[in-house]
Amino acid sequence: MDELLALGKALVPFIFTILIVVLFLIASHKVLLGNKSLQQEAKLPRQLILLVLYIVGLIGIAIALPVTESTRNQVISLIGILLSGVIAFSSTTIVANVMAGIVMRFTMPFHIGDFIRVDGFFGRVTEKGLFDTEIQTEQRDLIAFTNSFLISHPLQVVRSSGTIISASLSLGYDVHHARVEPLLIKAAEQSGLEGPFVQVLELGDHAITYRISGLLTEIKSMISSRSTLYVNIMDCLHDDNIEIVSPGFMNQRKLPDDLSVLPVKATSRKKPLAEGTPEDVIFDKAEEAQTKDRTVKDLLEQLAQLEIDIKAAEGDRKAQKQAEFAALKETIDELQSKKVKSDET
């Protein structure tokens, strides 16, 4: 009987510790991740804090075990070994993606809405999570890459200040380069490219390979701008009676030497162009995500400024600022809530 009483007294602190830890973790989870309107980027630091709290809670329970001090130390050492093992083998586990997400969180190689190319895939970033990153491709499809994959492969990010748009074509030796280069530059300028320049890439057996390049500052229109450049190149060369056709084809056809193969110039389009650009359809989710992300960031900056103004204001002005603060906070919560519903859909 005395032994049972002694055992019960020894178990009381242990059970009490378990209850406190469980209640504390439940409350922490509700406080940190209870708001469903939180964005993925905002969840990341909260998830890391919660992970640390789980580890601390586990160690606290181990300390409260009703065993001898040597056994308790062995249990704590076992927990440390398990954690070390998980970290050591993180290259093939979920922990690897968490660690990669933390690395990208601090290095910030790209933002939501940026164009990236990795392992042959190209698209705009729509989501940045703790475990993976989602992009929207030129086919409007969504592809999710694990964060460990992104940091282990070369990642190309299109600069927001602009990117180089290029087009290559081959022309015969019978057309002098001094005649070709001004026409290619003219085509680039008509396409809205800045600082266009021409390069001679190759002197082939039957043709010269040219490349026309220029800076596109409006990177959201990369796809349509490249297509426009191709069209303008054809128009400029054909208008100057320079045919873009294989020299091999020219040698095989039985036509007079003074006859050029040129398409009939169109006088007008059969139907007007649709409003907008192809990028509006292709990268719709990425564009929406970037717009909402920038809007929320701007509103959060205004919210922080209002907090400063409230502390400095007095009387009616303070009440006015507090009302503005509440309205702005409600707007931010509504935007984040709409984003979460959109993601779930």
Automatic annotation (TrEMBL):
Topology of the protein relative to the lipid bilayer: Multi-pass membrane protein
GO terms for MF: mechanosensitive monoatomic ion channel activity
Compartment(s): Cell inner membrane; Cell membrane
Occurrences of domain Mechanosensitive ion channel MscS (ranges): 93-152
Signal peptide start and end residues: none
Annotated Gene Ontology cellular component terms: plasma membrane
Chief localisation class: membrane
Protein function: Mechanosensitive channel that participates in the regulation of osmotic pressure changes within the cell, opening in response to stretch forces in the membrane lipid bilayer, without the need for other proteins. Contributes to normal resistance to hypoosmotic shock. Forms an ion channel of 1.0 nanosiemens conductance with a slight preference for anions.
Name of protein: Small-conductance mechanosensitive channel
Species of origin: Glaciecola nitratireducens (strain JCM 12485 / KCTC 12276 / FR1064)
